[in-house]
Design goal:
By secondary structure, the protein is α+β, with helices and mostly antiparallel strands. It has two domains: 6-222, Transposase IS200-like (Alpha-Beta Plaits), CATH 3.30.70.1290; 239-298, no CATH class. 49% of the residues lie in helices and 11% in strands. The chain has 13 helices and seven strands. Strands 2-3-1-4 form a four-stranded antiparallel beta sheet, sandwiched between helices.
């Protein structure tokens, strides 16, 4: 069988991107309290996301549901993306009120256009890395409240696919929807009271925008600089783990080890680490083997 080479596949990705848009990156305010504190609350949050997508018509292509914020990547006109954000806000506000938690009346939700294939890939990696970066007990594809496990996963067909939403009883439908409006797509499937992500995330469309499974996996595990760019877009501050920063900085000097770098080159590397990676003084000192005094002279700490 004829196999397309890298550049032919890349052209296909560019064509799919052009044909499938417009795309939007939607992120909710990073709260200082918890939206979800139990498995049951996460399940309700998942159902709210899926129902908001269905009612608005916004096609969700990737998402992650953290304790205190959400990220979404999807396609549809701006009006559709805005409708999704409104539906989500309304339902979450009602749910959080029922739990006796702080009001979500002023919940900020950002909607940013995604205009290039590179940005789409970077944002996908950023979303799918969220739990992996924030939690010590999770890898990207093992987090149950996000879409990462769906992409390029040939074993999905072996998993229990749940029950069809249309086959559920009226009471169970109303419990899931938290409403008498139970008009949802027939493709939705349910397990243990949760609408499964495999039935409401358009993961095949996301897969078509990566050149290969290898490219997706590489972007998922080694995209430190991309994470910094995306975080800057939405006003988040993150710090990449030392192990990843070491790999990135080492790649700036092929054929050399960081220990072999001349002192003046190390100082230039320190400047680039601060500008490109947002590294702290402590991280710069540890990765480049510079003394704390040297780094503090380069980047004085506020008194």
């Amino acid at each position: 069988m004829f196999k397309k080479d890298f550049w032919e596949r890349e052209r296909d990705c560019e064509r799919y991107f052009a044909e499938g848009g417009p795309y939007y990156f939607i992120t909710t305010e990073d709260l200082d309290w918890m939206l979800y504190e139990s498995r049951e609350e996460f399940i309700t949050g998942t159902n709210i996301v899926s129902i908001s997508g269905a009612h608005s018509g916004f096609s969700i292509m990737d998402d992650v549901q953290m304790n205190n914020h959400h990220h979404f990547l999807g396609s549809g006109r701006y009006e559709v993306a805005f409708s999704f954000a409104e539906e989500l806000h309304k339902a979450e506000r009602k749910f959080q009120k029922s739990l006796g938690k702080p009001s979500l009346k002023e919940w900020e939700i950002r909607i940013d256009p995604v205009t290039t294939l590179k940005a789409f890939r970077n944002i996908t990696a950023y979303i799918d890395r969220n739990a992996y970066v924030a939690r010590l007990d999770s890898m990207p594809t093992g987090y149950p409240w996000g879409s990462a496990s769906l992409f390029f996963n040939g074993s999905l067909w072996l998993m229990d696919s749940g029950s069809k939403f249309r086959d559920l009883g009226g009471r169970e439908k109303r419990v899931i929807c938290r409403s008498h409006n139970v008009d949802l797509p027939e493709s939705y499937r349910v397990k243990n009271g949760m609408i499964l992500r495999s039935s409401f995330i358009d993961y095949h469309a996301t897969e078509r925008l990566f050149n290969s499974a290898n490219q997706y996996f590489t972007s998922l595990t080694r995209r430190g600089e991309a994470d910094i760019e995306v975080a800057a877009m939405i006003g988040e501050k993150i710090q990449i783990p030392n192990e990843e920063v070491f790999q990135i900085v080492n790649g700036w000097f092929p054929g050399q080890t960081l220990r072999e770098l001349e002192p003046e080159i190390r100082l230039k590397a320190a400047l680039k680490m601060r500008k490109s990676l947002g590294s702290s003084n402590r991280q710069i000192s540890q990765v480049l083997r510079l003394s704390a005094e040297e780094v503090n002279r380069l980047f004085p700490k506020p008194v």
